[in-house]
């Protein structure tokens, strides 16, 4: 799930990335989930996601530039890549899989 909210200043868009535990591979005992993408230089440990027992989901919120496309994926236990099925679209990543894309709204188009 992606939730987008324009910052009051209009200079950034707050994007909450969330993946429910039920969307992760059932065979994995999940130890950690990281948000990895263009916004953090594809660093596999730069953006840890916090688990919410109430929502049974992993979540991270970033302030991103409005009117931009950002490719991303979720990395589980440092070795299993997962996509967000609520992404705005998908693009081939050249490795035989797709990356998710989030498009931040223009300053006046927040949703």
Summarize the structure.
This protein is mostly beta strands. It contains no helices and nine strands.
Q: What quaternary form is this?
A: single chain
Low-confidence stretches: none
Number of domains: 1
Strand tally is 9
Gross CATH architecture: Sandwich
CATH superfamily: Immunoglobulins
Overall mean pLDDT: 92
Major β-sheet annotation: 5 strands, antiparallel
Order of H and E elements: EEEEEEEEE
Structural class per helix/strand content?
A: mainly beta
CATH topology (level 3) name: Immunoglobulin-like
The first-to-last residue Cα distance is 13 Å
Strand residue percentage: over 45%
Shape: globular
Q: Estimate percent helicity.
A: under 10%
- Helix count, per DSSP? 0
Characteristics of this structure?
111 residues, mainly beta, Immunoglobulin-like, 5-stranded antiparallel beta sheet, 4-stranded antiparallel beta sheet, 0% helix, globular
Structural overview:
The chain is an all-beta fold and 111 residues long. It has a single domain (2-103), classed as Sandwich (Immunoglobulin-like). Helix content is 0%, strand content 45%. The chain has no helices and 9 strands. It has strands at residues 2-6, 13-20, 33-37, 50-52, 57-64, 69-76, 80-82, 89-92, 98-103. Strands 3, 6, 7, 8 and 9 form a 5-stranded antiparallel beta sheet that branches. Strand 1 and strand 2 form a beta hairpin. The radius of gyration is 14 Å and the shape is globular. The two termini are 13 Å apart. The mean pLDDT is 92.
């Amino acid at each position: 799930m992606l939730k987008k909210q324009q910052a009051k200043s209009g200079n950034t868009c707050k994007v909450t990335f969330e993946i429910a535990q039920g969307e992760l591979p059932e065979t994995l005992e999940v130890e950690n989930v990281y948000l990895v993408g263009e916004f953090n230089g594809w660093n596999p440990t730069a953006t840890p996601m916090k688990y919410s027992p109430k929502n049974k989901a992993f979540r991270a919120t970033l302030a991103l530039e409005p009117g931009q496309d950002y490719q991303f994926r979720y990395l589980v236990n440092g070795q299993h890549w997962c996509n967000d099925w609520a992404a705005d679209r998908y693009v081939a990543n050249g490795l035989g899989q797709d990356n998710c894309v989030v498009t931040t709204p223009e300053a006046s188009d927040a949703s």
